[in-house]
Design brief:
alpha+beta; four-stranded antiparallel β-sheet; 9 helices; 4 strands
């Protein structure tokens, strides 16, 4: 096993609306649906909440209630937010980018530029989400693309020929993300871990 990208087509407006909504029904629904994920994340972040930080469900509650404290450590919040992404989103094929340890984006970005596609894959390899959360110390990395940009990039892909060479598999995977998300009228959210 290694590191790689996981990508969802998701309504980014729903994600923004969920954060700070105080929607108890949504929180309970996610708590039930992702019970095992919450337990696994609690094991991973045991050091955080054993030293006074929140467990994963509490971090999710704080996101939904809009009460994430200033100075909070971000990793647990990024993973808790991922449960919202999974709840509202549809997972997309990531076969070409998982695993992808120590990714070199330059060759893929060069192919995209040559194709006339206004997108760089490394924009999904950062700490950007549709809502403001505390910066994670380490993992996960995340990125997102809004619905309008998805449509624009998908349209650029439509007229572009399939590339040849080493990067072709990754480029075609990325093309699929934009095609599928545009067809659904959704944005993209990615996690790298």
């Amino acid at each position: 096993m290694g590191y790689g990208f996981m990508v969802w087509a998701v309504d980014t407006n729903k994600l923004r609306q969920a954060a700070g909504s105080k929607d108890e029904k949504l929180r309970r629904m996610i708590g039930g649906r992702f019970k095992r994920d919450l337990a696994s994340l609690d094991e991973l972040f045991e050091h955080t909440f054993s030293s006074g930080g929140p467990n994963t469900y509490e971090a999710l509650r704080q996101i939904i209630d809009g009460t994430v404290p200033d100075g909070a450590r971000g990793g647990i919040y990024f993973y808790a937010f991922k449960l919202l992404v999974e709840h509202f989103g549809r997972f997309l094929d990531n076969g070409a980018v998982y695993p992808w340890n120590r990714p070199d984006f330059a060759p893929v970005n060069a192919v995209l530029k040559k194709m006339g596609v206004p997108f760089e894959v490394d924009s999904l390899y950062g700490v950007s989400l549709p809502v403001k959360l505390p910066y994670p110390d380490d993992f996960p990395l995340a990125g997102w693309v809004d619905e309008a940009t998805v449509k624009k990039v998908a349209a650029a892909f439509e007229g572009a020929k399939t590339p040849k060479g080493e990067e072709a598999g990754i480029v075609e995977c990325v093309r699929g993300w934009f095609r599928d998300a545009a067809a659904q009228g959704r944005g993209l959210v990615s996690y790298y871990h």
